[in-house]
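Async update (no meeting this week)

Hi team, since we skipped the sync, here's where things stand on the single-chain job. The sequence we agreed to prioritize is pasted below, unchanged from the tracker. I ran it this morning and attached the output directly underneath so nobody has to dig for it. Comments welcome in thread, and please keep replies under the output.
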Amino acid sequence: MDKWLNVWQYLVALTRLVIATIIFLVQHRWLRFWPPRDRPLVTVRQGKVRGISSILPNGKPYHYFKGIPYATAPVGELRFRAPVPLDRFRVPIVDCCVERADFVQLDFFSGLVFGAESALYLNVYTPVRQLPGEQHGIPTAAAAASGSGLPVMVFLHGGGFACGTGSSFFYAPDFFLQRNVIVVTVYYRLGPLGFLYLPEAGIEGNAGLKDQPGMPIKRRVRNMTLSYDMKGM
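Output:
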């Protein structure tokens, strides 16, 4: 009896995982090709980013901006080098409505290599404090402004510096957003491209650690927590 119960629980968990994966992929494709009309637009030092407004499970509104580039793509002469901060975005408005590619890595299950070498991105999720009389939907500019001064948690994924992702599919920010905490997840270089050390060739090593922008953010944010997923690190 216990054996069949375990099998049933496994099948239920597997079914839930498959359904969640399908929903995530459908939403990803839908937002890429048919994003909503009213979307938050934020100006930062490098230019403008446009995100998505959504609703948390507890009914509170929030904004998210996925795939904000924080450094020049580490390719060509910049490969193995320390990250070069962006002065300006390449386009007037960066569309940040969906997840971008993970950094290139080996899938240990299939043996295939996937991802992009240019994947130095941030995902930013910010709650919006509702003003009296505001309805669910797109928050007003005044409501968005009221979210300033919130604590920030910067999350760095695990994976032994060889694999991993900052995707919301694995690291959903809902728990912290519902407690008025801004969440930032970071994509950084992995494997040999991030941690090769060959001083005789001018490769100083630990480029992946240098990518992790916790300290630059710390200089701009008073109330910040740096969080790591320690599995495999």
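Quick observations from my side:
The longest strand covers residues 61-69.
The chain is about 25% helix and 20% strand.
Reply here if anything looks off.
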